[in-house]
Amino acid sequence: MLNRSHLGVKSLVFFLVATVTACEGDYTPKPRGYFRIQFPEKGYKQYKSACNFSFNYPTYALIEPDTSAQAKPCWMDVAFPAFNARLHLSYYPVRSNEVFNELTEDARTFAFKHTVKATAIDEALISYPDKKVHGVFYTIEGNTASAMQFFLTDSSENYLRGALYFNEKPRLDSIQPVLKFLKDDLHVMIESTEWK
User: Fold this and answer.
1) Is 195 helix (H, G, I), strand (E, B) or coil?
2) What is the band of 17 on the pLDDT scale with cuts at 50, 70, 90?
3) d(CA 11, CA 151)
4) What average pLDDT does this structure show over 174-183?
5) Which end of the chain offers a freer environment for a tag, N or C, measured as fewer CB atoms within 10 Å?
6) Quick check: 57 pLDDT over 90?
7) How do 118-128 and 62-65 pair as beta strands?
8) What 3-state class would DSSP assign to 170?
9) Distance between CA 65 and CA 78 in Å, rounded?
10) Sign of torsion, CA 78 64 150 52?
11) Cα gap 140→38, rounded to integer Å
12) What are the φ/ψ torsions at residue 46 (nearest 5 degrees)?
C-alpha cells in the first residue's frame, strides 16, 4: 500500500517529466501579421473640370484641390481614404520644346530620386496615338516613399504628372496588395485620359 507522500512525489515527477518532454519540439514564433484589407468593388466615374484634361477615376476616391503654397491651377490630389494614399496630379501647359524637355527630365529626376531605397525602377512607355496621349509609367520597387509615378503629354500643349504616396512609413510587404489594387486604377485613369 502506498502512502500519501509517495503519491505526491510520483505526481511531482510525472509533472516534471511531462513539462520537460513537452518543450523539446521546435518552436517558431508567428511572424507579425497585418490587418486583412477589404477592397471595394471596382467602379469609375469621369473627372471633368475647367482643366484641359479629363479622365476616369475610382468611385471610392475623392478629387481634392492641391492647397500647398506652390500649387498651380489644375494641381490636385486623387485621395484614397480607405488606403491612406494620395495620387498627386500636376498639370502644366506646354508652350515650347524647352519647357517640354524640362518637364520630362523633371519627371525622370523625381522618379529616380528614390534610387537610394529602391530595389528596382521599371519604366513602361505609354502610347495612345489616337488620343495623342503618350508618356512613361515608373514602377518603383522597395520601401520607397512613392511606388508609382507617371507623366502624360501630347508633346505640344499638355503635360500631366502623377505620383502615388502613402501617408505612412513605407513597408512594401504590408502595402503590396494595396499597390496592386491601385495600380489597376492608375492604368484605367491613364487609358481614359483625354485632352480638351
Assistant:
1) strand
2) low
3) 75
4) 88
5) N
6) yes
7) unpaired
8) coil
9) 9
10) positive
11) 24
12) -90, 135
Q: What grid cell was written down for 77?
A: 490630389
Q: If you write DSSP's letter for every residue of 19-59 in order, what string do you get?
A: HHHHT-S---PPPPP-PPP-PPPP-EEEE--SSSEEEEEET
Q: 136 is written with which cell numbers?
A: 512613361
Query: Within 13 Å and on the Cβ side, how many CA atoms surround 172?
Result: 13
Question: Which residues is 78 bridged to in the sheet?
Answer: 63, 87
pLDDT tens digits, 119-157: 888 899 999 999 999 999 998 888 887 889 999 999 889
DSSP notation for the chain: ---HHHHHHHHHHHHHHHHHHHT-S---PPPPP-PPP-PPPP-EEEE--SSSEEEEEETT-EEEE--STT--TT-EEEEEGGGTEEEEEEEEE--SHHHHHHHHHHHHHHHHGGGGTEEEEEEEEEEEGGGTEEEEEEEEEES-SEEEEEEEE-SSSEEEEEEEEESS---HHHHHHHHHHHHHHHHHHHHH-EE-
Q: Which residues contact 92 (CB under 8 A, 6 or more apart)?
A: 72, 99, 103, 158, 159, 160, 161
Task: Tell me if 16 sits within 8 A of 23, measured CB to CB.
Answer: no
Q: Among residues 89, 112, 62, which one has the least CA distance to residue 165?
A: 89
Whole-angstrom distance, CA of residue 119 vs CA of residue 3: 72
